[in-house]
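Protocol step 4 of 6: record predicted structures for both targets in the notebook before any analysis. Target 1:
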Amino acid sequence: MEKEQEKNIEAQTKGFLYYLKKLLTWERVTGIATIITLIVAIIAIVPESETEILKKEIRQKITIVEKDFNPEELIQENDSSIYVKYLVEFQQKVLEFCTLWQIMDNPRPYVDYSYLNKEEIDSLIAIDMRRVDRIDKVWEEVNQINKNIIDYTSKIGTGNYPFLSLSKMTLMGNYQEQKENLEEKTLKVFLPKLNKYANSNGKEKEEYLESALKELDVFKNSPEYYRVDNISLEYWIETNKLLKVWKRDVLKSEREARNNMIDM
């Protein structure tokens, strides 16, 4: 009996292999390869969304920041200069901004977390909202440090601050305003849905949660959220280069200011 079963299995295997060989003729293999090549080509020519392009550019700029911003080296170079302290603070804040951005750069959509219980959902959302808020605050802090540098250097008479284009500075402000408007609009839609989720049961509860989380995904994938980050990193990278080039003149002015104080 066992031998008959083995023969049947062997026959079935041979039959399958014969069918497979017949199916995968060279013409069919060539045809399949052509289809795959066409699919890959079609995918390649489909344009990326503005959001994906922005995120890719931001990641590239973060790589530049992580390579070029070295606050520890600046401290070791001259820890008595007020200008250097401002420059160190500037670099530290930009690096903090990059770290927070990378943490938030999660490709997984929020709606995928709809299986979590209420406490876990609340914790997830609260943590991410605090991070978004912190990113906005760090953005403001970086720009305040730039203002502090301008104010300080004008007092010690170092000449004109090496401004970048005013158009780029204006864009930063406009894009930040767009982002804040987007945040406000999202919360106005998201919070009522989340409250309905908290106060409902059964299938309706699941639907409210999924709908609420989809609002966060729309927010997270909106180009308005990323435009300010992209232009700001570009501006900060260029600012860092100028501040380092200008450092020698400022240090000289600082020494002269100290000597004048001693002479008095």
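Target 2:
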Amino acid sequence: MKGYFQIRHDPYTGEIGFCNLSEASLGFLRDSFGGRSRLGQLVAHDVVEHSLSHRIKSYVTFEAEIRALGASSFVRPSHFDSYEQVLYQCMDMQRDVKPITEMMAKYFRDSWRVCSDMMKYLIKEGIEPKNARNAVYQFEMGYYEKSKQFDGSNYAAYQAFSLIERNIEFVCSEIAEHESWGASVYFDSNKHIFRHQLKRQH
């Protein structure tokens, strides 16, 4: 996997953000250092587990976030409780979950990809059956799309995730040292390339 992304930084407030997402803050630069920081994981999630279009969008839908959770279950299958994370998205949504296309839904059913246990869990926790069904299909769509992107290789997907996660703290230290407005990053996980350029002005 290769591509570009940006880390935004406001030197006056210390707040940092990802690409063009206007409402989703990654926190504050001062909190991005040390072993307890989750910034590298958050950025890697945005770059690898979301769709490529996530890097140019100014907002993210709940459905896109559920698909990204499905992608996470492909990239990092043992790192988080996917049932609980999907439940939180459904509870926060305050509206119905949009369905995927019926053609893809039929494909998932016919190939036994639909996780009925997750659907039962969501319904048991109070999610309406229609929304539980749509959320599970969105989740499966995210897994399917990420699997296709990486030709079924969990290893290649996690290699891309790990490359970004472990290099973000250094980028942030450079941003802090030069009090810049952020950085543009280029990466290529196949060739183990990760380089950045600081933004010198707003």
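Step 5 preliminary note on target 2. Strands lie at 2-9, 15-18, 25-28, 182-188, 193-198. The radius of gyration is 18 Å.
Proceed to step 6 after PI sign-off.
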